[in-house]
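Quick one: structure for this chain?
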Amino acid sequence: MNQEMAEEIAYGWKYDGDYSFYDMTEDEEDLEEFLQSERTGYYVVKKEGEWIGYYCFEENGKGEIEIGLGMKPELTGKGLGLEFFQLGIEFALEQYGPADLFLSVAAFNQRAIKVYQKAGFIPVKTFMQDTNGSRFEFVRMKFNPKGE
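Got it. Here's what it folds into:
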């Protein structure tokens, strides 16, 4: 991901209703980190020449990868999530060969949680996190490629 792509995602991608929680501009600290980072481990997904989403993969030194992702707002809620998510999982497995994949998702986002579960992720804990000027419940989910 280059700076132009990061800026388009940060300022141009706006989600509807409750999902505006995921707008990059909702949390100044996250926005600054996204725009200022070297973006190591950030990848943009294109389909037919159009950016459809992005992934961030962070290694923790224990053979585990933390996944961050975002899908272009106009494409959400249209049944494309599982295919998009599986692309990211396949890439992470090929690129990093992790023992486990993890992600955290806002608990209200049942639409995403269902997609992650269909892809084989299981909830392992819930926790509270300060973000977007308030405190929200999140679900931590895990995927073990070996099915363990």
